[in-house]
Design brief:
This protein is an alpha/beta fold. The chain has 2 domains: 31-147 and 291-367, Response regulator (Rossmann fold), CATH 3.40.50; 153-283 and 380-416, Response regulator (Rossmann fold). The chain has 14 helices and 14 strands. A 7-stranded mixed sheet has the order 7-6-8-9-10-13-14, sandwiched between helices. A 3-stranded parallel sheet has the order 2-1-3, with helices on both faces. α9 links the parallel β8 (229-234) and β9 (255-260). α3 (86-95) runs parallel beside α4. The radius of gyration is 24 Å and the shape is globular. 48% of the residues are buried.
Length: 418
């Protein structure tokens, strides 16, 4: 009997030893964050820049001990800039890679393809630069990283309309051109709302097939109507083609631009060079004095030191700080709640003002920012295709709103092109 008790005691002790050894092993397992990110296709320029920023955040967090005492690991796949690739990628992330958290890729269509997956899994989804991506879904655990406020359809073009009303004489007519996509419809809806608010008549209001590559016919149609303001809602490849078409046709108007994604990236800026002169466009961050939030300068120094070697946007003003802040918010939520649970993370993110490298962030309706922070900048006096001229705010001049402007608008459009 004593021998049996001794054997039982030894067995229990052995089990306890094994269990104690297993605990730190489990604690050291990484927290996996899974997402798609464009590394090829028309969104790749911004996608690659965003990915480097996310890697830097991961390194920074791991250098401080990770999250919940565990290292962080990014698990990602190239969505090839195509929303049709998104469902299979997230299925693999969740069922094969067994990620703990998910994030979105870049741009509205990519995010919109990921939201239903997050909804089925009851997981938080941080959306990187979506324009009203959650307006149809109304998912309560979606949070958008873009400073476009609770009325995102109008936010990106509202600064352009505010700027237009400072011109003399005041404009009377507006044309809008955008693709037949969710993004394009959001732009058109926003222009309709802003035109009504500022008393402008819309004289050209139509979409184009998203596969369009030659815009000379469209721009000639716009020119024939002779509007005062031309709002262009385009995505990266389209933006390049439209700028070239405007240069070929010689479009005349008081103000041209507005909601053209891609023109904020260095590869496009250096590709188009002086063809950009005169265009006004939305921006979210430039190195203006009042936009120097804690940690932003240090992050960009790290990013720019590595960018050239990794073949990504060497300046990184457009998306890199936002991609870093995207994971900052997610990481802060994990630490604050001591949890990976979607409901707990969602409640925390929704009810907290977050401190990030792109300033304070507070979310409201549909996971959009409570307070928008979109501004408008104009390309001025660009010469050649030199990279250095696009650093700072000398060639990309902030022309509105007044509280952060760095220079005055040159108009009409054709005068700004000289």
């Amino acid at each position: 009997m004593k021998l049996k008790n001794l054997n039982l005691t030894a067995l229990v002790a052995a089990v306890l030893v094994i269990a104690s050894l297993a605990i730190p092993a489990r604690a050291a397992d990484p927290i996996k964050i899974g997402f798609s990110m464009a590394q090829t296709g028309p969104l790749a320029g911004s996608g690659k820049s965003a990915l480097l920023a996310m890697k830097i955040w991961t390194e920074d967090v791991n250098a401080k001990g990770g999250l919940l005492g565990r290292p962080v690991q990014l698990v990602y796949y190239d969505d090839q800039s195509s929303p049709t690739a998104v469902p299979s990628i997230y299925t693999k992330l969740l069922e094969v890679d067994k990620v703990d958290l998910i994030n979105s890729g870049y741009a509205t269509a990519i995010i919109a393809a990921a939201i239903p997956i997050a909804m089925r899994q009851n997981m938080v989804l941080m959306g990187l630069f979506g324009l009203a991506a959650n307006s149809r879904f109304k998912y309560d655990k979606y949070f958008g990283i873009a400073p476009i406020g609770e009325n995102p359809a109008s936010a990106n073009t509202k600064p352009m309309f505010e700027l237009a009303m400072t011109m003399n004489p005041k404009p009377k007519t507006v044309a809008v051109v955008a693709p037949d996509t969710d993004f394009g419809q959001s732009v058109i809806d926003g222009v309709r709302e802003n035109a009504k608010a500022y008393g402008l008549q819309i004289v050209f209001d139509r979409g184009f097939p998203p596969t369009t590559t030659d815009f000379t016919t469209v721009i000639r149609q716009v020119q024939a109507i002779n509007p005062d303001v031309v709002v262009l809602g385009t995505q990266p490849g389209q933006s390049v083609a439209v700028v070239r078409a405007v240069n070929e046709v010689g479009l005349k108007a008081m103000l041209v631009g507005g909601s053209m994604t891609g023109l904020q990236t260095t590869d496009v800026e250096t590709l188009l060079g002086p063809q950009l002169n005169g265009f006004v466009n939305f921006n979210y961050w430039l190195p203006a004095p009042k936009l120097q939030y804690p940690g932003a300068t240090e992050f960009l120094k790290t990013y720019q030191a590595r960018a050239a070697g990794e073949g990504v946007d060497p300046i990184g003003y457009y998306i890199a700080p936002w991609a870093y802040a995207d994971l900052q918010i997610l990481g802060q939520a994990v630490e604050a709640t001591k949890s990976l649970d979607g409901a707990k993370l969602g409640d925390y993110i929704r009810n907290t003002t977050h401190k990030t490298v792109i300033g304070d962030v507070k979310f409201g309706t549909d996971g959009e920012w409570v307070k928008p922070r979109v501004f408008i900048a104009q390309f001025q006096h660009v010469t050649g295709n030199d990279l250095e001229q696009f650093k700072g705010i000398d060639r990309l001049v902030i022309v509105g709103p007044d509280e952060i402007k760095s220079g005055n608008l040159i108009y009409p459009f054709q005068d700004a092109r000289k």
